[in-house]
Amino acid sequence: MSGSSISRYNSCMETSFPTLSRAQEFYNVIDANAGLGVLFAGRELNQPDHRVQTVRDHYLFHYVLSGRGTFGLGRKSWNLGPGEGFLLAPGVAGRYASDPQDPWGYCWVGFHGRDAARLLPQVGFEEGSPVLRAPFDPELARRMLGLAAILEVRAPGFSLAAEGQMLLVLADLARLAGPRAKVDMAAKTQALTWAEAAAEFIQTNHHRAIGVDAVAAYVGFHPSHLGRLFRAHYGTTVQAWLARTRIERAKLLLRTTDHPVSEVARSVGYRDYAPFEKRFKALTGRNPTDYRRGPFFT
After folding, report:
1. Which of 49, 146, 266, 294 would you label with 77, given CA atoms 20 to 30 Å apart?
2. CA 153, CA 205: separation in Å to the nearest integer?
């Protein structure tokens, strides 16, 4: 590791924070089987009135370091400043914009994994609560900037370091959330068994023309009851999980085989091409043909 790289890493781990400028984003080695996997992290001082509208297939958390801006989901919006943050969940359309007079600077992390939805309620993020409200916390700021630095420098073992740093970020979020981070462990344990059984059934049978009723019948619950257990554990609906599972498999087939797109659609459980294309574009921002032609790593 070069001296300049060490300097950049250490600058993010010390009390004084680096000066933010244009967007800088750094990427991790992707582990599809990670319990809690960091995908990327970055930092930026926004231009005034800079606006973003996005739908992701992973979790995306922003922590505000300076300035102000707004975050919105559907009809709700929040005005945020230093020390506050917002979480965008997979498959959820969100928007955020910097203040025209006092644009915010923030850092962010994208992450995924089978443990992510289980851990987020423990740090204060539940359905209807996608925002962190707290005074500016230097420790959390250091952790977030340090996460970006780890991926920027890419020293030996950086992926393990990023995973460890992400757990420390979650621990800081739990500390700041206070009472909101309390979890009913008995209810959580009960939900764990049935929610995971449903997810396993989806993973094994997503190529078939199944729906929520079939998943519910497999675990022996009414669809609405399973839906509540599933959302409590994974933070999303059974239908959304099924759709994401199918589209992720379709993405892999499009990139690794020469099967016709219509055949790919059928192989992931869509009888008709039109709903497959609509769902694919909603989750990836591109139609299947454009996705196949695009660069492999995005």
Report:
1. 146
2. 41
Strand pairing category for 105-112 and 85-88: unpaired
pLDDT value at position 16? 47
Longest dimension (CA), the chain: 60
* CA 4/CA 1 separation, integer angstroms: 8
H or E stretch including 244? helix 238-256
Residue keyed to tokens 């990139």: 255
Phi/psi region, residue 123 (left: phi>0; alpha: psi -120 to 50; beta: rest), is: alpha
Identify residue 284 by its one-letter amino acid code: T
Asked whether the beta carbons of 283 and 243 are under 8 A apart, the reply is yes
Average of per-residue pLDDT across 200-216: 90
- Measure the CA–CA gap between 206 and 235, rounded to whole angstroms: 20
Task: HSE, CB side, 13 Å, CA atoms: give it for residue 59.
Answer: 25
* Cβ–Cβ < 8 Å for 66, 20: yes
pTM of the model: 0.59
Q: Could you tell me the domains of the chain?
A: 3-181 (2.60.120.280), 185-293 (1.10.10.60)
Average pLDDT of the chain to the nearest whole number: 86
Hey, how many other C-beta atoms are within 10 angstroms of the C-beta on 206? 21
How far is Cα of residue 270 from the mean position of the Cα atoms in its chain?
25
Residue ranges of the alpha helices (H) in 14-76? none
Give dist(CA 172, CA 166) in Å, integer.
10
Indicate the residue type of 82. Answer: P
Question: What angle, 0 to 180 degrees and rounded to 10, lies between the N-to-C axes of helices 223-234 and 238-256?
Answer: 70
Q: What is the b/e burial string over 243-267, where b = at least 16 CB atoms within 10 angstroms of the residue's CB?
A: bbbbbebbbebbeeeeeebeebbbb
